[in-house]
Amino acid sequence: MLGPVLLAASRSDAIRRLVSAAPGTKQVVARFIAGETLDQVIPIVKDAAAEGLEVTLDVVGEDITTVEQSYAARDAYLALVDRLKELGLGTRAEMSVKLSMFGQALEGGHELALANVRPVVEAAAAIGTTVTLDAEDHTTLDSMFAIHEELRRDFPQTGCVIQAYLFRTEDDARRLAAAGSRVRIVKGAYKEPASVAYQDKAEIDKAFVRIVKILMAGEGYPMIGSHDPRLIAISQELARQAGRKLDEYEFQMLYGIRSEEHVRLAAEGHRMRVYTAYGTDWYGYFMRRLAEKPANLLFFARSILTKG
């Protein structure tokens, strides 16, 4: 039951300071975070492209408290678009954004987040790529979906994320599985109450499969976000049953996790996209990665003990 504890810790400033100062933290963070700067992450994008992989880039740092920080987040993504354009990497890399980073939780946050994300989506479209809106905790989703719908009026390729552990998601999937849509399905990585989300792993897995089936049977473009070999195999079979070609859906996995599987799927002809996070404010993202898999926490603990 460490997962819920770690997810709660992801919101704690005291634990943030403790983890940040711990010996060995930097080594483990580097497993999941591609770098702190844009200059550090661009070679990773180039290497991925050379291996037949695509990427989605996430500038970490959703825990903002001021309007000025939301503007800085917008500008960081605009700088990323400029660099991708300069290097001709627009067709290999898209971007993932958390609307909390664009000010969604601040006063007037819905309008602020929309105003901040729109120029990023527009700039991405201009270089031949797009943006996917990440899902966060359940209280933010109505706002995220409304912003997604608004953006798609001008930029129909804008994607969004849905989370299998939420009871609402099957209905969301049916609504979103329309022509031209791009939908990433993941299990979910936030601490959610039993009133809105499945708590049992087996139930979450079953929901994941039901939702993949809905997406594959729809007219949109499904993006399967999972490292689970069984769920990947089931998704492949559901795609086959739906008559989908290999370029009519894709798999997505996190940077630093099952890297050999990234290459294997790409070699088989699948579209394979690596979710690549970078930046200095890595704590919340890092703690969610630890919560998702006990082996990640064990790796972290061993690194601290080794360095201690």
Shape: globular
First and last CA, distance: 26 Å
Sheet bearing the most strands, described?
Answer: 8 strands, parallel, barrel
Rg result: 18 Å
Strand order of the largest sheet: 1-2-3-4-5-6-7-8
Order of helices and strands: HHHHEHEHEHEHEHEHEHEHH
- Total DSSP E strands: 8
User: Could you tell me the mean pLDDT?
Assistant: 88
Give me some keywords for this one.
308 residues; 14% strand; alpha/beta; disordered C terminus
Folded structure, characterized:
By secondary structure, the chain is α/β, with parallel strands linked by helices. It contains 13 helices and eight strands. The protein has an eight-stranded parallel barrel with strand order 1-2-3-4-5-6-7-8, surrounded by seven helices. Helix 10 (229-241) links the parallel strand 6 (221-225) and strand 7. Helix 5 packs parallel to helix 6 (109-126), helix 8 (169-176) packs parallel to helix 9 and helix 9 packs parallel to helix 10. It is globular. The two termini are 26 Å apart. Mean pLDDT is 88; it is low at 303-308.
Topology, pairings included?
Layout lengths: L1 H8 L3 H9 L3 H8 L5 H13 L3 E6 L7 H21 L5 E5 L11 H18 L4 E3 L7 H14 L4 E5 L5 H8 L5 E5 L14 H17 L3 E5 L3 H13 L8 E5 L4 H9 L3 E8 L4 H10 L1 H14 L1
Parallel strand pairs: 1-2, 1-8, 2-3, 3-4, 4-5, 5-6, 6-7, 7-8
EC number: 1.5.5.2
Cofactor: FAD
InterPro entries: FAD-linked_oxidoreductase-like, PRODH_bac_arc, Proline_DH_dom, Proline_oxidase
